[in-house]
Design a protein that fits this description.
The complex is a heterodimer.
Chain A: H1 2-33, H2 39-48, H3 58-81, H4 97-108, H5 124-154, H6 164-190, E1 200-203, E2 209-212, H7 217-226, H8 247-271, H9 275-302, H10 306-311, H11 323-336, H12 351-362, H13 373-393, E3 398-399, E4 402-403, H14 406-432, H15 434-444, H16 450-464, H17 479-509, H18 525-549, H19 551-556
Antiparallel strand pairs in A: 1-2, 3-4
Helix pairs in contact in A: 1-8, 3-4, 3-5, 3-17, 4-17, 5-6, 5-7, 5-13, 5-17, 6-7, 6-8, 8-9, 8-11, 9-11, 9-12, 9-18, 11-12, 12-16, 13-14, 13-18, 14-15, 14-16, 14-17, 16-17
Chain B: H1 4-40, H2 42-45, E1 49-52, E2 55-59, H3 104-121, E3 143-144, H4 146-151, H5 153-160, H6 164-173, E4 175-176, E5 187-189, H7 190-198
Antiparallel strand pairs in B: 1-2, 3-5, 4-5
Helix pairs in contact in B: 5-6
The chains are: A mainly alpha, B mainly alpha.
Chain lengths: ~550, ~200
């Protein structure tokens, strides 16, 4: 029975993540809080000119994040524009300016949306020097911001939240680089390629010719998953047999995507000195994950819709080695984290099945979310939850001993407004501006009718939430989408970061208040239920109308 | 507050950090993995290439078309799944069809593929598995389901003048179970099956 394989696969994943949770979570807590530097780090700090012992205010921390990210955008942009003169470019020309902008923003914001087809666009030097580097550092930036927020909860009356350059460096050197090396070796053993030989032309046994690509894929694939980036070396992403050759490498990639985001609640619990708080956040994340996975698996196994029924199963856009169950788990993982990698084509999912990746992203990617961004997103929702619970009983809300006053709740409210505004405004403008609409309908949309609206909605949902997956039939390499999605990715990444760091600063400056009988306990099942409820209700209220116009209408007709 | 000098300093730090990270993560790391792959796992690192009598004939991981110059299926070879990569199994243009579940073109294509297989393989529509009628995500899927391999046995053995039992036994021996017994789906690698078929003796 198919369902048993789905259950067994999910249980295996849960077991592996449970085994990783404590050691990885504690390891991250220890090294982000440590006051000792490795020798190589001391050399690095001297080289770049920072004092690792200096503590930053939230404004200073933010300026460092923004300076580093802006330079990253310029750097990746410049490398693409210079592709024609770089070695190992496979003869590909310079990337056009609009696409270079979109791609630079995409990789710096940890989105990894790809308006282009990498197979015929990006040479090895752009992939390695530009894209792979951002795969590491954009993930490290996300975790750094999350750790800064956790320090805000943990520290009393300091007003500082850590040192960005130290957090960035440790995230890369102590976590992501060693993890990526290990993962790359495992992927290599599974058949992922790693060479610099370009294309190999072969004559097949029927006398035809086939041109087989090469590339430094394993090294990139490892950090693409571990850093929840998701930008494929090839157009088909993790469906390409050279990126993901077997069912077990697919499972391994799923574990890589979830390892850090699902362990960060432990890091949080350890740093704030109450591990039960970590379990509560983990519980909320896991509950949403299980429900979402179940829904997508059942929708795809059900195979509703004209084409899946005609074919006898929803196998369009799915690989035989992964099957429906392996595709549903990968798709759920990729869109509940900020990865956006795909091992099946979401555009060809059943109508209601295709709605699930969208819903996953619309939840704000908090279950467990991207590296760092998932934790800070969920902590913002926890702040909203204690506020709502406080309203119900008429008490000033507190979370982890910190008062959630007007300033804190304003910041949290602005945070949850950012991405819905970008998604809905972007989608609406695509159809409201006459010239844009004509271009979107004639050039970009691949599937006509309701599904076409879903393609545009998916694109803005993915960009604003920094996911990067797509209803990939959409032709996004147009001036409108390159620009609008680029802006959505930038604002969707950095406005929340500004707000999170502001919150971290406000919390860090506060003293803690002692818990009383009236304090809402935030480590019990009751709170987990409230948190899940708040997450789901906010999303449902915001997005129900537009979902009703797209996938719901298609699926129920 | 932020003085211009302080900002300029931040950008200097950021620039130096970016350059050092680029050297470590963009050059040293991928080259070290490349060196490791080429020394320790050269077969995998270079694409699991299959060497035939006349040199490299493909990769065990990358699917191929077994069609004539016009794209029509050649009955003496086991057929791969439909492909949306270029004109079919173009390994420089990996892609799915991205057609949605209600897309008229996809519905028509499935009907066409179904009647073509019914005719060529002499089977009923109910016997044809979904993977035979649908394009994969990569367009390079090297594998088909065991069911799809089995319904092709009669056609292939007739075209080659081989006993059905011989070809059938070959197919059964080439079915790969799920990874670790429960991950993914059972598969048959089409290129490897066809290579084994070619090496069978006594072909008419």
């Amino acid at each position: 029975m198919d369902l048993w394989f789905a259950v067994l696969q999910a249980l295996t994943l849960a077991l592996v993540l449970a085994l990783i949770y404590r050691p990885l979570g504690d390891y991250m807590a220890a090294f982000y809080q440590s006051s000792r530097d490795l020798r190589i780090e001391r050399g690095f700090y001297r080289l770049i000119g920072v004092n690792p012992r200096s503590q930053q205010t939230w404004q200073s921390y933010l300026r460092s994040v923004l300076a580093f990210s802006l330079l990253g955008v310029l750097f990746v942009y410049a490398i693409q524009r210079a592709q024609a003169v770089l070695p190992y470019s496979l003869g590909f020309p310079a990337i056009p300016s609009g696409l270079s902008f979109n791609t630079a923003v995409s990789f710096v914001t940890n989105t990894n949306w790809q308006s282009y087809s990498p197979d015929v666009t990006m040479g090895y030097s752009v992939q390695m020097l530009g894209l792979a580097v951002q795969n590491f550092v954009s993930a490290a930036v996300g975790i750094a911001v999350a750790i800064a927020l956790v320090r805000g909860f943990a520290q009393r009356r300091t007003g500082t939240i850590g040192n960005f350059w130290v957090d960035l460096t440790r995230g890369v050197l102590r976590l992501l680089l060693p993890g990526a090396v290990l993962a790359a070796v495992v992927l290599l053993a599974g058949g992922v390629i790693q060479n610099l030989t370009g294309f190999t032309d072969v004559t097949t046994i029927t006398g035809a010719t086939q041109s087989i690509p090469g590339g430094p894929v394993a090294s990139q694939e490892a950090i693409k998953m571990l850093g929840t980036n998701g930008g494929g070396f090839f157009n088909a992403n993790s469906a390409h047999p050279f990126e993901n050759p077997t069912a077990w490498t697919s499972m391994f990639q799923i574990i890589l995507m979830l390892a850090i985001p699902f362990s960060l609640p432990r890091t949080f619990g350890t740093i704030v000195g109450d591990k039960r708080q970590g379990y509560a956040i983990l519980g909320a994340m896991a509950a949403i994950f299980v429900v979402s996975l179940t829904a997508l698996t059942l929708f795809e196994l059900g195979g509703a819709g004209t084409a899946p029924l005609a074919a006898g199963g929803a196998m369009e856009g799915k690989e035989q080695r992964f099957g429906i169950i392996g595709s549903a788990l990968f798709g759920t993982t990729s869109t509940l984290t900020s990865t956006g990698a795909v091992n099946s084509m979401h555009d060809s999912f059943t109508s209601l099945g295709g709605m699930m990746p969208m819903l996953n992203m619309m939840l704000g990617e908090v279950a467990p979310g991207g590296t760092g961004s998932g934790l800070y997103g969920m902590l913002i929702l926890a702040v909203i939850t204690v506020f709502i619970a406080g309203l119900l009983v008429g008490r000033t809300p507190e979370y982890l001993g910190k008062k959630i006053g007007p300033r804190e709740i304003k910041i949290a409210s602005l945070y949850i407004l950012v991405t819905p505004t970008l998604v809905l405004a972007g989608t609406a403008l695509s159809f409201a501006i006459p010239a844009v609409r004509a271009d979107v309908e004639s050039t970009s949309i691949w599937n006509p009718g309701l599904h076409g609206l879903s393609e545009v909605l998916y694109a803005f949902t993915s960009a604003a939430n920094n996911n990067g997956s797509a209803f990939a039939g959409l032709t996004a390499n147009t001036p409108w989408f390159n620009t609008a999605l680029g802006v959505a990715m930038l604002l969707g990444r950095f406005l929340p970061i500004v707000l999170v760091l502001a919150l971290a600063g406000a919390l860090s400056a506060q003293d803690t208040v002692p818990a009383t009988r009236g304090t809402l306990p935030t480590h019990r099942t009751q709170f987990v239920g409230l948190l899940v409820g708040v997450t789901v209700i906010i999303t449902a209220l915001t997005y129900f109308p537009v979902l009703a116009l797209g996938p719901l209408a298609e699926g129920l007709q | 507050m932020s003085s211009p000098r302080n900002s300029a300093r931040q950008y200097g730090v950021a620039l130096r950090a970016m350059l050092v990270f680029t050297v470590i993560l963009g050059v040293a790391y991928p080259l070290a993995i490349t060196a490791f792959g080429q020394l320790a796992l050269p077969n995998q690192a270079n694409g699991s290439l299959i060497h035939g009598s006349s040199g490299v004939v493909g990769s065990s991981l990358i699917g191929q078309s077994f069609t004539d110059a016009d794209g029509a299926a050649r009955p003496e070879w086991f057929q791969s799944r439909p492909s949306a990569a270029g004109n079919g199994y173009d390994a420089t243009a990996s892609s799915g069809s991205n057609l949605g579940p209600e897309n008229a073109d996809l519905i028509a294509a499935i009907a066409d593929r179904k009647s073509a297989i019914e005719e060529s393989d002499g089977v009923t529509a109910a016997q044809i598995p979904a993977d035979a009628l649908t394009a994969s995500a990569s367009g390079l899927d090297p594998q088909i389901s065991a069911e799809y391999a089995r319904i092709q046995v009669n056609r292939v053995s007739a075209a080659r003048g081989l006993p059905v039992a011989t070809v059938s036994a070959l197919v059964e021996s080439r079915i790969q179970g799920r990874d670790l017994g429960f991950l993914g789906e059972p598969t048959v690698n089409v290129l490897q099956l066809n290579l084994a078929l070619e090496s069978l003796p006594d072909q008419g």
